Amino acid sequence: MATDIDSGDALLTVSRGLQVLRAFRGHRNPLSNAEIVARTGLPKSTVSRLTTTLMVAGYLRHAAGGRHFELGSGSLGIGHAFLESSPLVRLALPFMQVLADELNVSVALAIRDRFEMLYVAYCSGKNIATLRLGVGSMLPMESTAIGRAYMWGLPKEEREVLFGQMHEHFGEGFQAIHQGILSSFAELEASGTCLVKGGYQRDTYGIGVPIRAGVRKTVMGLNGGAAVVDADFTKVRAVIGDRLKRAAPELERILRDLDCPI
């Protein structure tokens, strides 16, 4: 029979394995062991052992050239299983696709994962330039419209706890980060949406609103964005921002009877 120590070691191994998989963050870019070490903070020997184990299990595979890794069919299978079984995704996607086509933008719905926003649903308009994003993409919470809208939507006490955690995580850099967040909060207070230019990729914009999904009123971020050079941001705020602001309560109504963890 397994001892508590054995169980603890197994849990630590699983936790570290998940850290390695998290390092890929939905970017779809192959990573070397050194890059995984930099992203996870795990020792080089641990990463080397875990990537080998995850390859044998089918969760990683060698990318073209053989020196970098990418997610394997095992990891993708977990993601597809989530998409197929998630009532939230099933309910939200048709509405989001209509919205994306209407506005000719990408539309994303995201939840918080530590200090990032994880896309759980994503649609693109028919003629939009690709942002190279999709379900599973993880964007920085502190510098994107979807992340700032999410934070603004949190209850005040929960938001203050999160700010404390971010201060500890980002250290001296948090002061500048906080000022950017507060600027978006002021925009959300005034207009109900916030717009961020180049918060994740150059020559892109995102405009975000919070939503509260399901019976549990889980706070999520809803975002519209595109890759556009020299966009007319006054028009973006007036047209896309206004439509997203009206879309948020519509999506909340679609999801209002959802009674499961998100």
TrEMBL record:
Organismal lineage: Bacteria, Pseudomonadati, Pseudomonadota, Gammaproteobacteria, Pseudomonadales
InterPro entries: GAF-like_dom_sf, HTH_MetabolicPath_Reg, Tscrpt_reg_IclR_C, Tscrpt_reg_IclR_N, WH-like_DNA-bd_sf, WH_DNA-bd_sf
Domain HTH iclR-type: 11-73
IclR-ED domain ranges (all copies): 74-257
Keyword entries, A-Z: DNA-binding, Transcription, Transcription regulation
Biological process terms in GO annotation: negative regulation of DNA-templated transcription
GO molecular-function term, one example from the UniProt record: DNA-binding transcription factor activity
Protein name, entry field: IclR family transcriptional regulator
Keyword hit for Ubl conjugation: no
